[in-house]
What we know:
It is built from 12 helices and 7 strands. The protein has helices at 8-28, 33-52, 56-67, 69-76, 78-90, 97-102, 113-124, 140-144, 155-161, 200-210, 243-248, 255-264; strands at residues 129-133, 147-152, 172-176, 179-185, 215-219, 226-230, 233-235. The longest helix has 21 residues, at 8-28. The radius of gyration is 23 Å and the shape is elongated.
Amino acid sequence: MDFIPFTVVDFIDIFLVAAIVYGLYRMSRGTNAPYILTGIVVIYVLWVIVKALNMELMQVILGQVINVGVIAIIILFQPELRTFLQAIGRRQGGFSFLSRIFNARGGQEPALQPIITACSEMSATKTGALIVLTQRSDLTDIVESGITVDARVSVALLENIFFKNAPLHDGAAIIQNDRVVAAKCILPVTQSPVPKAYGTRHRAAIGLTETSDAIVVVVSEETGGISVAFGGKIERNIAPRNLLNAITKHFIDNPAAQRERRWRNRPAADNN
């Protein structure tokens, strides 16, 4: 019996397929996607059986379903595929210059002092808040999910938005440069495993930062603790006096932040 040689290219091929399947699994975990995929597999197996038994009418019907299967998959898995592609885009590494070319906004740093003061005061009164600081990523869909505000950032504005009985308190406030562009915005909740102690605001903060370069500040309604999320990770229980540094270290155009990220991401061998 002749054996087909197994080459390095074959190994790379299998590894890449496994990585893609695992990535799709991570993105779809906690959603209805696995059930939809199971249904697709069942239909395909049924089609193979019908074809083997030469059942012409069923073969024609199922054949038509299979033929439009790719389009159906794109439609059914649109949220998961979008999240997967956005995650790849955020991890483009050396190709980050593409973001600069296709995003002309440039990521001007927002006015931070009103945000820090408002978060400190809301923390003291245990007023829940969810504040998104945009950078280069396009968050148009997120902005359009809320109510337009378009007002200059101020302590009074933020505290009024997140006042417990205010109509806009439930959701996120989106800040671009020095303006609150929208409030009551809906953020995608992370599907990654997180501690049970994390509330909806913390899960939403992680979820948005998994697919964008936004910085999200969270004030817990239960404990008053302040958290900052970036890159799919969250730093919790930040003292108000340290909030400025916790935010600015994630600015893309901040040279010191860039050096810190490069140092953190160095291979272990380089740190010895």
